[in-house]
């Protein structure tokens, strides 16, 4: 997060949220100081609009996220020089726990993040906890906007002194794994624990579920984060030669596809200066020597069927990303579409979901994405299959069947109940039970 170290993008390759002038230099504020891109995470619209004006008058650009989900989606797409984080989102709460959890995740995703927290009056204990968790400064409510802006500017300036300027690489990890489910939390926790070590990590899981993103997240949490990782597809001719004299992170794809002698050659070619992160289909296919070198830790990325709660979060993120990329208005998922997405089968995992959301963004054109729009003309997903014969888990089958019927009847409970041969009350009870 060094200011001015890379034109138009940070070392993660993400575009900066602030403006870059036509000569490629960062724009300057009206007062001649550098203009910074700031993210405010605060659910209070009146605070946000007052801050937006104050930061703009000081020559900066403020982007507002009304809560953690929107903030993490923005942080995965855009780079900010500083983040101003309110520590309480739920009205009436002042214990700061929600904000501290958000801060911990921001710091885990990007240890160089520059965060200034806003704490409630008398919240010194929380402010201290936030500083221990990596915040650079804090402001206690009620603050004067001019003081807050000065604190943010000072925090950014301090950062560029503390952190040496690293040569940025657009190839360095964007690396923000989105999702709130327990399985993805476990992946994030493991990344935090083993990322900074030199241990070899073998990543397994279905293709398209985020194995490469997980590898990049590990790299980003490592001591080699400032340089681009070496990415080697071992199926290619002469791939091992890329390891001659190599240092830092090497992301290795398909080591398990090599024959045994070549796997052993690979194990020997991985010097101590290299930190291997491998994407592997079958750990069992590794020779003992290679297993020891690249799979000290096995990290299984869960498929979407194991973390359905993440599907709406990811879907909304990809809608925002696609709307930005195509310059189209942001569409909204209706309830039936959300239920259908959760219950659908995703053979291409997160990649398929992203594709479906790109299509939906173009088809909906700012309006509501309904269930019918989701599955027309794409092989990226199949609508939920009420296939009781094939799925022997009765609970899951029933849930899928109800979700499919609801989607088909545009969430009209009377029509859906009739189609399923249930009373409205019985359908409502089941919908509640399955969270539909
Ligand atoms: N948790 C996540 N949050 C945000 N984006 C994600 C997440 N998981 C996957 N993606 C996105 O989905 C797409 C597929 O992920 P990725 O390339 O990491 O999959 P993969 O398992 O490595 O697939 P393959 O091995 O087939 O290339 C990428 O665009 C990635 O950024």
TrEMBL record:
<feature type="region of interest" description="Disordered">
    <location>
        <begin position="1"/>
        <end position="31"/>
    </location>
</feature>
<feature type="domain" description="Response regulatory">
    <location>
        <begin position="37"/>
        <end position="156"/>
    </location>
</feature>
<keyword id="KW-0804">Transcription</keyword>
<dbReference type="InterPro" id="IPR002078">
    <property type="entry name" value="Sigma_54_int"/>
</dbReference>
<feature type="modified residue" description="4-aspartylphosphate">
    <location>
        <position position="86"/>
    </location>
</feature>
<dbReference type="InterPro" id="IPR001789">
    <property type="entry name" value="Sig_transdc_resp-reg_receiver"/>
</dbReference>
<keyword id="KW-0805">Transcription regulation</keyword>
<feature type="compositionally biased region" description="Basic and acidic residues">
    <location>
        <begin position="8"/>
        <end position="17"/>
    </location>
</feature>
<dbReference type="InterPro" id="IPR002197">
    <property type="entry name" value="HTH_Fis"/>
</dbReference>
<dbReference type="Pfam" id="PF00158">
    <property type="entry name" value="Sigma54_activat"/>
</dbReference>
<dbReference type="InterPro" id="IPR009057">
    <property type="entry name" value="Homeodomain-like_sf"/>
</dbReference>
<dbReference type="Pfam" id="PF02954">
    <property type="entry name" value="HTH_8"/>
</dbReference>
<dbReference type="GO" id="GO:0043565">
    <property type="term" value="F:sequence-specific DNA binding"/>
</dbReference>
<keyword id="KW-0597">Phosphoprotein</keyword>
<protein>
    <submittedName>
        <fullName>Response regulator</fullName>
    </submittedName>
</protein>
<keyword id="KW-0902">Two-component regulatory system</keyword>
<dbReference type="InterPro" id="IPR027417">
    <property type="entry name" value="P-loop_NTPase"/>
</dbReference>
<dbReference type="InterPro" id="IPR011006">
    <property type="entry name" value="CheY-like_superfamily"/>
</dbReference>
<dbReference type="Pfam" id="PF25601">
    <property type="entry name" value="AAA_lid_14"/>
</dbReference>
<dbReference type="GO" id="GO:0006355">
    <property type="term" value="P:regulation of DNA-templated transcription"/>
</dbReference>
<keyword id="KW-0067">ATP-binding</keyword>
<dbReference type="Pfam" id="PF00072">
    <property type="entry name" value="Response_reg"/>
</dbReference>
<dbReference type="InterPro" id="IPR058031">
    <property type="entry name" value="AAA_lid_NorR"/>
</dbReference>
<dbReference type="GO" id="GO:0005524">
    <property type="term" value="F:ATP binding"/>
</dbReference>
<feature type="domain" description="Sigma-54 factor interaction">
    <location>
        <begin position="177"/>
        <end position="362"/>
    </location>
</feature>
<dbReference type="GO" id="GO:0000160">
    <property type="term" value="P:phosphorelay signal transduction system"/>
</dbReference>
<keyword id="KW-0547">Nucleotide-binding</keyword>
């Amino acid at each position: 997060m060094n200011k001015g170290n890379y034109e138009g993008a940070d070392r993660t390759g993400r575009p900066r949220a602030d403006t870059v002038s036509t000569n490629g230099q960062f724009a300057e504020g009206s007062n001649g100081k550098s203009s910074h891109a700031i993210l405010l995470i605060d659910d209070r619209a009146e605070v946000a609009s007052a801050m937006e004006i104050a930061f703009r008058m000081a020559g900066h650009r403020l982007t507002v996220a009304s809560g953690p989900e929107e903030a993490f989606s923005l942080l995965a797409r855009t780079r900010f020089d500083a983040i101003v984080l309110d520590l309480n989102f739920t009205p009436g709460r002042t214990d700061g726990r929600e904000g501290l959890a958000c801060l911990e995740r921001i710091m885990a995703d990007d240890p160089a993040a520059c965060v200034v927290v806003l704490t409630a009056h008398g919240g010194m204990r929380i402010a201290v906890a936030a500083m221990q968790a990596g915040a650079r400064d804090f402001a206690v409510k009620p603050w004067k906007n001019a003081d807050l802006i000065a604190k943010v500017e000072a925090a950014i300036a301090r950062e560029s002194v503390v952190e040496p300027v690293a040569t940025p690489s657009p190839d360095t990890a964007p690396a923000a794994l989105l999702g709130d489910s327990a399985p993805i939390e476990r992946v994030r926790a493991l990344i935090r624990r083993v990322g900074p070590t030199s241990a070899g990590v073998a990543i397994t899981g279905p293709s398209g579920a985020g194995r490469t993103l997980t590898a990049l997240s590990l790299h980003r949490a490592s001591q080699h984060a400032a340089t681009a990782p070496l990415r080697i597809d071992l199926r290619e001719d002469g791939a091992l030669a890329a390891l001659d004299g190599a240092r830092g992170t090497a992301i290795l794809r398909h080591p398990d596809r090599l024959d045994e002698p070549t796997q052993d050659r690979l194990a020997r070619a991985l010097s101590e200066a290299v930190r291997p992160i491998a994407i592997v289909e079958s750990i069992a296919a590794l020779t003992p020597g290679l297993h020891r070198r690249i799979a000290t830790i096995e990290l299984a990325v869960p498929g979407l069927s194991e973390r359905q709660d993440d599907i709406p979060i990811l879907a909304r993120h990809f809608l925002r990303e696609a709307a930005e990329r195509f310059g189209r208005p942001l569409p909204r998922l209706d309830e039936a579409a959300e239920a259908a997405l959760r219950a659908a089968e995703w053979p291409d995992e997160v990649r398929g979901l992203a594709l479906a959301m790109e299509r939906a963004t173009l088809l909906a054109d700012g309006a509501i994405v309904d269930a019918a729009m989701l599955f027309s003309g794409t092989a990226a997903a199949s609508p939920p299959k009420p296939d009781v014969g094939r799925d022997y888990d009765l609970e899951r089958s029933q849930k899928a069947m109800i979700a499919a019927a609801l989607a088909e009847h545009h969430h009209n409970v009377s029509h859906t109940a009739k189609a399923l041969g249930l009373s409205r009350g019985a359908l409502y009870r089941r919908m509640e039970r399955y969270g539909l």
